[in-house]
Amino acid sequence: MGKLGWPSPEKDRIQEVTTRLETAVFSSWWYRALKTVNKQHKKGLNSLIILVAWELWKHPNGCVQWSHPMLVWF
Predict the structure, then answer these.
(1) Greater confidence, 2 or 9?
(2) Where are the alpha helices (DSSP H) in the chain?
(3) pTM, to two decimals
């Protein structure tokens, strides 16, 4: 938000660039990871990556939307 409570275009642009960068880094990591396994294991690795990414994405949303406690994983 800007000084008077109006949305800040600068903040929106920064968030958009950051999101694109995070997506690019994740997708390039995923692509490199797939290149390290043979063809018969690619489906399994894809499934594992999707499952972990989904769980990581769901957790903060659950904390915000449904008041689930924030857990710290080590």
Answers:
(1) 9
(2) 9-35, 39-65
(3) 0.56
